[in-house]
Amino acid sequence: MRVAVLGATGLVGKEMIATLEARCFPVDDFRPLSSPRSAGTKVRFDGRDWEVQAVSPEGFDGVDVAIFSAGGDASRKWAPVAAERGAVVVDNSSAWRMDPQVPLVVPEINKKAVEDRPKGIIANPNCSTIHGVMALYPLHKEAGLSRMIVTTLQSVSGSGWKALVELEDESRMVLDGNVEGANERASVYPHRIAFGAVPQVGSFDDQGYTDEEWKMVNESRKIMGAPELKVDCTCTRVPVMRGHSLSITAQFERKISPSEARAILADAPGVVLKDDPSSSIYPLATDAAGTDPVYVGRIRESLSLENGLDLWVASDNIRKGAALNAVQIAELLA
């Protein structure tokens, strides 16, 4: 297949390229694309260096699959262009996710949705949404999910290269005793992220919710085909380099015991059960970093909700939360 990657020099774009190679995706022609600013740089794929081209309409000519990770503005501009030129676009931004004519896909959950793509665009969900629905959908199929209450602890890699550097710089400053300098260093986030937590991911609306929280609400409903699902979400940014964690309380239409939930999740594709708290075995973002699965553990009965379960989830936000899921979607088209 002829494959283009738009945003090839970014953190997620580079991971997409590495994932295409690691999964032996059938690439006959490879086109790394970027903004003019990054054009001319090199990326490594299939044992050789490829020069990154500035994105243009002609860059999509003859392309079968175009995988995008260049932000919402670029996706809104270039996805229709690529589709008009004959490519199927797999877009990692939020630009198209809630468009009723664009499927929003997690292959382990709703892979058949890729078949209905009138605009030639398939949306890749938000990272935390992917992690959450991967853990909850197998239980939803068995017991009917009616409510989910989620708090995310999101690593700085979700904000790109600059955030990783910022966390490293701030941490060094704090450890050197320069707390004021670390506070002033903050630029990616509204406050210093080192040795703290920021209860804001995205921009706030008039109701006091961020756009990241609304992604969890609306995307979860769309992916799982559950438009009436009740969702409460608080998204936070934490001083972790890579790997998101989620604390989830889920309520079901019928009672589901922790042991039943463990048995279901143990057989769920893409999920790894890590649930032996007495031996300090549970999902950790540090363990999830650099791996593909969604890890689930600390499964226990809710103390306040009838037919409720509490659980803890961790996964690599750059892998399954972005690059891997996008490549899995592309594999459905191969």
TrEMBL record:
Keywords recorded for this protein, A-Z: Amino-acid biosynthesis, Diaminopimelate biosynthesis, Lysine biosynthesis, Methionine biosynthesis, NADP, Oxidoreductase, Threonine biosynthesis
Example GO molecular function: NAD binding
Binding positions for phosphate per the UniProt entry: 97
Active site: 127, 244
Superkingdom of source: Bacteria
EC number: 1.2.1.11
Domain called Semialdehyde dehydrogenase NAD-binding: residue spans: 2-117
Reaction(s) catalysed (UniProt annotation): L-aspartate 4-semialdehyde + phosphate + NADP(+) = 4-phospho-L-aspartate + NADPH + H(+)
Positions of substrate binding: 154, 237
The family this protein is said to belong to: Belongs to the aspartate-semialdehyde dehydrogenase family.
Protein name: Aspartate-semialdehyde dehydrogenase
Natural source organism: Dethiosulfovibrio peptidovorans DSM 11002
